[in-house]
Specification:
Layout: H1 2-16, H2 32-41, E1 72-73, E2 77-78, H3 81-89, H4 91-94, H5 107-117
Antiparallel strand pairs: 1-2
Helix pairs in contact: 2-5, 3-5
């Protein structure tokens, strides 16, 4: 029974393909595996490219690739766990006029979704500005470039 539980745990972790985010970006009470389910269930891929979420290949809103490496959230506040959870619960309170709709996420759902997003780019081996593999971001067949940080910024 213990081996079966361990195997299930490894399967779930592998399905998430998530790296552990840095301590400053960990979400208390958040679960990345549940967050992937929340993101898929609420249709976030209808507007965003989100690695690891089947069908999340839309460019209506900003792509959420390498989220853990971003410095600003909604163009207004530092990308920090408390701000992301608040934004996911009520986007208009953080960024009035944002195209991001209020999805009606509860506190636990927002924490889980944020925990998943902070796994994206947490252990990125390819630096910004390097090509993504075909099919890794969006529907175009050719490779794309990873987001480039401003010149001189740590990468």
């Amino acid at each position: 029974m213990i081996l079966r539980a361990a195997g299930l745990t490894l399967l779930l972790l592998g399905a998430c393909d998530a790296a552990e985010p840095p301590a400053a970006l960990r979400i208390a009470g958040g679960d990345a595996a549940r967050g992937a389910q929340v993101i898929a269930a609420h249709g976030c891929g209808a507007c965003h490219v989100i690695p690891g979420i089947p069908g999340a290949v839309s460019w209506v809103g900003p792509p959420l690739i390498e989220w853990a490496r971003r410095g600003v959230l909604a163009g207004r506040v530092p990308n920090a766990p408390e701000h992301l959870v608040a934004f996911l619960r009520n986007p208009q309170a953080t960024s009035p006029g944002s195209a991001m709709p209020n999805l009606g996420l509860g506190e636990a759902e927002a924490r889980d979704a944020a925990a998943y997003l902070y796994t994206l780019g947490a252990a990125q081996a390819v630096p910004a500005g390097q090509p993504l593999a075909p099919g890794e971001a969006g529907t175009l067949p050719g490779p794309r470039l990873r987001p480039q940080l401003r010149p001189g910024a740590p990468q």
